[in-house]
Design a protein that fits this description.
By secondary structure, the chain is mostly beta strands. 8% of the residues lie in helices and 40% in strands.
């Protein structure tokens, strides 16, 4: 009798252990990670979409199918653990705009992407072609020059901008964003990662955008700093936009940027202040420390490595430009004046197979000399290893 009771108790304990393990590993349950601030948002691993309005949602291990927009609202948090794959499914048609898949973080919301070099977080698409989904959008409360606030062109019509230069939208580390850049029209396109008025409290390090049909990274004002960013556009017969882009008064620091395109896309950098008011403040004035830009040669439709226009300022140092028709293209009186004043400059530049190092054009479309914009250094290392893959990018990126 005692042996029978012992066997029953043992079986019950074993059964309980199995049941607990099964619940922890359930495809729709994240209970194996303690969450002190749970959300009422219900995670469906095969149908991830909706609005996270409160608490914290944790995505833990495995693949999640992104079937629509996922928006993190004010006061809510999305946390993504190492190795998680978020895969955007295909919309019913290329013009089913209401079905566009993307991830957005609104003002006051936060995202924590906790990838590692050995186990990056991957945001990708079922269709492995550029423009298959929207990408990632962050909206913060840092200053912009389009007004005190504005509305994002993509990502759910989010309000962005404000007066908090140190605003914090979270932390993003070791993230790979693949095949983004969905386009509604020529004036409304997603990038790989869009920063709308994002503040300096936001940490972004070790992020790659792979095969975007629009820009890799774009800043719409804000003050956030970034480190170790990669953009690769390599697919033949594909057309992308710029590798890096800023406008509306971005005043952050970027350390170690690597961009390469071998297809018929646009520029390495397209940099603006404000196209409607070239002197609108805060004036775009980022600091770039270490950048490599590799182009597809002189045959591209927009073969400039760096286009600087409509009043932008900025300081670039340790620059490698390879395989472009034009190195620096400076346009409009305000940006030309910034070159003359030393407020728009690139120091320690290495040119490799660049036909024309600099060209300048006034607002009246007359040619001006802007050769003062650069100083040369044949030993410049750019993003860290010249035109070769940077050491810091090894192990978690795709396409090298």
């Amino acid at each position: 009798m005692k042996k029978s009771i012992f066997r029953l108790l043992t079986l019950a304990l074993l059964t309980g252990t199995v049941a607990t393990t099964a619940i922890s590993c359930s495809s729709d349950d994240n209970s194996s990670i303690e969450n002190p601030n749970p959300s009422d948002f219900v995670v469906n691993r095969n149908d991830l979409k909706g609005e996270i309005k409160s608490g914290e949602v944790i995505l833990e291990s495995g693949t999640y199918k992104l079937t629509g927009s996922l928006i993190v609202r004010n006061g809510a948090t999305l946390r993504i653990k190492p190795g998680v794959i978020i895969e955007a499914t295909a919309a019913s048609s290329p013009t089913a705009y209401e079905e566009v898949r993307y991830i957005s973080v609104a003002q006051g919301g936060k995202i924590f992407v906790e990838g590692t070099a050995a186990s990056p977080v991957i945001m990708t698409a079922v269709n492995k072609t550029p423009g298959s989904w929207g990408g990632l959008v962050l909206a913060g409360r840092a200053p912009i020059n389009k007004g005190t606030t504005a509305t994002s062109e993509v990502g759910g019509d989010l309000t962005y901008g404000g007066t908090d230069a140190n605003d914090n939208s979270g932390t993003i580390t070791y993230l790979r964003i693949e095949y983004p850049g969905f386009s509604y029209n020529a004036d409304k396109e997603f990038n790989g990662l869009s920063f709308f008025g994002v503040g300096k409290g936001t940490k972004v390090e070790n992020v790659q955008v792979y095969e975007s049909s629009d820009d890799g990274f774009e800043w719409f004002g804000g003050t956030n700093d970034v480190k170790n960013l990669v953009v690769l556009n390599l697919l033949p017969n594909a057309v992308g936009d710029d590798l890096f882009d800023w406008t509306e008064g971005w005043n952050g620091t970027a350390t170690s940027l690597y961009g390469k395109r071998t297809n018929a896309g646009n520029r390495g950098i397209e940099a603006d202040n404000n196209s409607n008011d070239h002197t609108a403040g805060p004036i775009s004035n980022p600091t770039i420390n270490g950048i490599t830009l590799i182009g597809a040669g002189a045959a591209g439709p927009e073969p400039q490595a760096v286009k600087l226009r409509v009043g932008t300022k900025g300081k670039l140092d340790n620059v490698v430009l390879s395989n472009w028709k034009v190195g620096f293209d400076v346009q409009h009186d305000e940006s030309v004046a910034a070159v003359a004043a030393g407020e728009l400059k690139a120091t320690n530049v290495k040119f490799d197979n660049v036909t024309t190092k600099s060209v300048g054009t006034s607002t009246a479309n007359t040619t001006v000399d802007v050769s003062k914009i650069f100083t040369e250094n044949t030993t410049a290392t750019g993003a860290g290893n010249g035109t070769a893959q940077p050491e810091w990018s090894k192990g978690w990126t795709l396409g090298f």
